[in-house]
Every structure is written in C-alpha cells, then in structure tokens.
Design a protein that fits this description.
By secondary structure, the protein is of the alpha+beta class. The protein is 37% helix and 18% strand. It is built from 18 helices and 19 strands. The structure holds adenosine-5'-diphosphate (ADP) and magnesium ion. This is Heat shock protein 75 kDa, mitochondrial.
C-alpha cells in the first residue's frame, strides 16, 4: 500500500454532495441503477478494448453485488475496464458529467422548492452513492497493461484520498458503508426488487449474493425472426404481470430518424369495461436500462391499452432528462404513435375478422384517439369500424371499404346516429337511402357523434348525417318516388307546408319544406338535436326509453 494523497473536492462537487446527502427517501434507490449502469459501461468498454488490444484480465464479464446486513455494507464489483490514477481523479473528483452539471443548473433555476424527484430524473451518477453512504471506497485497477491498483475513499465531507493498493483485481469494486437510516439497502429482498425494477435487462449478468437476478432476456434487442411466439408470450406475461396471451405482437427496430427498439403487445382483454381506468403499460428504456416505468409521456393516453418496452439509444441516461421531456420524448412519441397506428392498419388488412373482433373490445380507445389526437386523425380514421346498411348485424366495415363501395356520383359518406340497427332500418331517414341503394353507416355509440364531428371527413369525402338538411338535398336521394295519381301538386304541397308552418308556429319549427323523397312517411324532422342531446333531455325528463 502506497502513500495516501488527500484532495479537496471542487466547490460545485461539494454542493452536489450536499444536495444528494439530503435527498428524498423515494430517490435513494436510484443509486443501485447508477452503479450497475457504470459497471455495465465499464464491461462494455473492456469488451471493446479486448477486440483490438491485449488486456490484463480474463475474468467473466459480469456484475456482482454483495450485501452484509451486520456491517451495513453494499458492495458492487465488476471486472471491467477499471481506472488509472488520472482517470480516478478526473472521473470521481470532479463533476464534468453533463448530467450532474445540468442537475445543478436546474436546481439553481428552480430553487429548492421543486426538488421533488429531480435526482431520480437526472440520475446524478456515481454521486448518488452519497444518498445512502457515510463512507465510500472505490478499489480500481485499469485493464491497460502495467496498471497499478488504487483505493479512493471519502466520507463525502469535502475531501477524498487516493492511495496505491495491493491485491486489487482489474476492474472496479465499490464499497458503501450505509447510513443508519439506509440500512435497508443491505437487505437482499429490497435490492433484488430494485435491480429487477431498473436493471433487469442489463446486458451482463448481475449476481446478488451469488444468485443471478436478471435472467430475463431483453427480447426487444433481438431481431424479429429470432424470437418465437412462445418467447413473446412469456415476455409479455413477465412485463405486463399478466396471465393471458397477447392477441397482437409488434416487434420492430429502426435507426432513423431515431434509434428505437421496441416490443409492444395488445392483451386479450382490458379492464375498462369493468369500470377501471387502465394505466399506461409501456416503459421507456435507454440501452436496456429503465428510464421511465409505465411512462405517461411516451405514448398518447388513448394507447394506454398497450404493454411493452420502447428502448431508444438516443435517450441519454446521463444527460439531463429535462431536455428529454421537451424534445426527444416528443419526437419519440410522435414516431411511435404513427408506427403503432400504421401497424394496426396492416394487421387489419392481413386478417379482418381478427381485427374486427379486436375492435369490438378495444375500439373505444381508438375512438377516443379520433376525438383527441388531431395529428394522427387520418391514421386513426382508417382504424375505425362500424355497422352499416350493407353489413349484416354484428359485422363491421371500414371507411375505406365504404368509400370503395359508394356510387360514383355520391359525394358524401352518410351515417346515422342510432341506438339500434332495427331503429335505423325502420327509420324514415333511411328510406330514401335504401330506395337509392346508398349505404348508411350505423353509429350506435354515444362517443361516435364526437368522432364524426371531429373527423368531419375521410380522405377528402365529407361525413354527413343521414338526418341532416345536407343529406336531404343530395340529388342522389331525390329519385325514389314516382309520382302517383293521388299526389298533391306542387302548389297544393306548398300551401300545406305553409299551413303547417303557421299552425305549428315559430317556437316549434324553423321552416317547413316540400320534399318528394319520402315514400311511406308523410313528414320527417330535420336538423333536430343530436341523439346524445336527446338522451340527455330524456334523462332530465325521467322518461328513459
Ligand atoms: P457517467 O456514467 O454519466 O459518466 P458517473 O458519475 O456515473 O457518470 O461516473 C463518472 C465516471 O466514472 C464514468 O464516466 C466512468 O469513467 C467512471 N466510472 C464510474 N464507475 C466506473 C466503473 N465501475 N468502472 C470504470 N469506470 C467507472
Ligand atoms: Mg453513470
């Protein structure tokens, strides 16, 4: 063991140490993730180095954590690249890291009032050990040939010391003497749960007191054709904490415009029909390390029925997560949303029956999207399904299929908001449509009214209510009725209309017009309040139908 050198921490490091030492309880567990990430980085660097140079180690590429509850110790060791004396001073003595820097900047700007969870968001790296430790010792030896071993130690109070040390293995070993109030971090049960939460998919085996913890493979990093359906099933059950099977599986990787690897699943069922609001189910990772569990910002809320993982290397683990919030995350969300919607569309085209069944259960989410997500409204519109006058009862059609079937001269897509198929078929409003073979979509859901109001059109073709004045004036619908012998003349009809208008008065009707399109009904009301409105009125009058 060589001579001990004592160094002062830089002022800003002292500040950071001060802050982390007083961290909130909920933030403390982050230190495990940070140390594991550093160890994994060091192993990765060693693997890189070994590809080109000879190194002084042949130890397995793994991470070992051992706990000692009696001594209140947390120890983590890797046989990675290690650090030279210079690296030790540079890396652990200063806060050159962008993460810690922007963390301090953020604190400066916001004051201490909004400190909540900020450490967790930024991931202050190695310094996070001071949230839980009284004294930290780092034993390290660089893998570069001829390197010596060192021991770096501090109580976090302003100075650290470095000394040469014997019997140091290549790599790094960090020993944390836990504070009295942090002794739970020497508990195997607690650390096991924390590793599983944040570091379950780290690319090197993590042993906790000699048992491997992270045995589940990160499926999303593999190529699509390397993963079997059964592996997906197991993985889905694992991450979604579920017992059913996914009905759809989406697995994809891309490098541009962002680097993304992702697996997403649609479960067999969702719980919202039981009146339980579903929480988001997709977690954000960066290089296999958890960044945001069940992330709220990663996908729009209406896709909350999805389960899975999105891993993006462009999300920096170390750099300010605040930037991530505003910028990369928004881009990632936009990309993922459009990817998911296009994927669903292709699945629908591959197997209509399967998709329609899915839609009956999950269509409400897509309808919610069609009402709220302006940016992806076209993609969402393609995914909607309705019954129509040309489908059987219980069968569904898409707007695209409607468009293909419609008559050449037909300039609108017609729909009727109706509680039941039978009402629609017997409705005076659909009579002229039937007679002229014009298809009408039957919209049974209360939310459908908002959907069509929001969409307004589909691929340039207007969506028009079959019971609207606009529909009544469509020339396509005028030809149904042949004039039979007993019909009123135009003049007679006009004076009847005038009489009705005068008799009913301005409070009851706005206008009474002559129409030749009805065959079996004497009159219809146009431009009445919407069914949703009507339902509300009925409820208020206590006359539920
Ligand atoms: P970051 O990981 O963002 O660089 P950290 O504060 O976590 O910041 O670590 C600072 C630096 O210390 C790392 O960049 C690395 O050079 C060095 N370091 C930390 N842990 C290890 C380790 N286990 N082995 C080798 N070097 C390490
Ligand atoms: Mg780090």
């Amino acid at each position: 063991t060589g001579e001990e050198q004592v160094y002062e921490f830089k002022t800003e490091t002292k500040r950071l140490l001060d802050i982390v030492a007083n961290s909130l309880y909920s933030e403390k567990e982050i230190f495990v993730r940070e140390l594991i990430s550093n160890a994994a980085d060091a192993l990765e660097k060693l693997r890189h180095l070994q590809a080109t140079e000879t190194t002084e180690t042949d130890k397995p590429l793994e991470i070992r954590i051992s706990l000692d509850q009696d001594k209140r110790q947390f120890v983590i060791q890797d046989h990675g690249i290690g650090m030279t004396l210079e690296e030790l001073n540079d890396n652990l003595g200063t806060i050159a890291r962008s993460g810690s820097k922007s963390f301090l900047d953020k604190l400066e700007k916001d004051g201490s009032g909004s400190r909540e969870n900020i450490i967790g968001q930024f991931g202050v790296g190695f310094y996070s050990t001071f949230m839980v430790g009284d004294r930290i010792k780092v034993y390290t030896k660089s893998a570069k040939p001829g390197s010596k071993g060192y021991c770096w130690t501090t109580d976090g109070q302003g100075a650290y010391s470095v000394a040469e040390a014997d019997n140091v293995a290549v790599g790094t070993k960090i020993v944390i003497e836990l504070r009295e109030d942090c002794k739970n971090f020497a508990s195997q049960l607690d650390i096991d749960a924390i590793i599983k939460k944040y570091s379950n998919f780290v690319g090197f085996p993590i042993y906790l007191n000699d048992t491997e913890v992270n045995t589940v493979e990160p499926l999303w990093t593999k190529n699509k054709n390397e993963v079997t359906e059964d592996q997906h099933k197991q993985f889905y059950r694992f991450i979604a904490n579920a017992w059913d099977d996914p009905q759809y599986t989406m697995h994809f990787k891309t490098d541009a415009p962002l680097s993304i690897a992702s697996v997403l699943y649609i479960p067999e069922r969702h719980m919202e029909m039981m009146g339980e609001r579903q929480e988001p189910g997709v977690s954000l990772y960066s290089r296999k390390v958890l960044i945001q569990p069940k992330s709220r910002g990663l996908l729009p809320d209406y896709l909350r029925f999805l389960k899975g993982v999105v891993d993006s290397e462009d999300i920096p683990l170390n750099v300010s997560r605040e930037l991530l919030q505003d910028n990369i995350l928004a881009r990632l969300r936009n990309l993922m949303t459009s990817r998911v919607l296009k994927w669903l569309d292709s699945e629908a085209k591959k197997d209509q029956t399967k998709y329609n069944e899915f839609f009956l259960d999950f269509g409400q989410f897509l309808k919610e999207g069609a009402c709220t997500d302006h940016m992806h409204k076209r993609d969402l519109a393609k995914l909607l399904r309705f019954e129509s006058s040309k489908t059987g009862s219980g069968e569904l059609t898409s707007l695209e299929a409607y468009q293909e079937r419609k008559q050449d001269k037909q300039e609108a897509i017609y729909y009727l908001l109706t509680p039941k198929r039978r009402y629609a078929e017997e409705s005076p409003y659909t009579e002229a449509f039937k007679a002229n073979d014009v298809e009408v979509l039957y919209l049974y859901d209360t939310v459908d009214e908002f959907v069509v109001n929001h969409l307004k059109e589909f691929q340039g073709i207007k969506l028009i209510a079959a019971d609207s004045p606009e529909a009544a004036s469509d020339p396509l619908l005028q030809s149904s009725r042949q004039q039979d012998a007993g019909a009123l003349s135009d003049d007679q009809a006009k004076s009847l209309a005038d009489w009705m208008q005068n008799t009913l008065g301005a409070d009851a009707v706005k206008q009474v017009d002559v129409s030749r399109r009805l065959a079996t009904y004497p009159a219809i009301v146009l431009e009445h309040e919407s069914p949703a409105m009507r339902k509300m009125m009925q409820m208020m009058q206590g006359s539920a139908k």
